[in-house]
Amino acid sequence: MGAQIHSYLMSEDARGQANFYVESLGGEIQFLTTFGETPGTPKAMKDKVMHLALTVAGTNTLMISDSFEPVSYNRSISISLSYDDVSEANTAYAKLSEGGESKYPFAPQPWGAYYGEVVDKFGVTWMITKQ
């Protein structure tokens, strides 16, 4: 028996966050359902995203939903992206950094790989590597 792990982010702006990742990492939104598609949803909630799935940086799946509570990310969970090409990794790092915070510059490391860490403008920590 097997299973897959997918990152599922709660957001205060699911559409905006998804579009930022598509622009930063390449990809596209595959599926989007709003709460308004569910019978009985209050009018104030109808345009909120219930479930959004997108592919980024190739065929990686990332899922996002609007939250009805304030969202707070912390460093206990990070998303790691490993690239085969150093220029693609550097571009992803630079784009994810826009409006965010560089925690660790993307640079060659003593173990032979490139590594960098950034907290994007939505508060998500990304670990970018090139082996």
Automatic annotation (TrEMBL):
It comes from the Bacteria. InterPro entries: Glyas_Bleomycin-R_OHBP_Dase (IPR029068), PhnB-like (IPR028973). It comes from Paenibacillus phytorum. Residues 9-129 form the PhnB-like domain. This is VOC family protein.
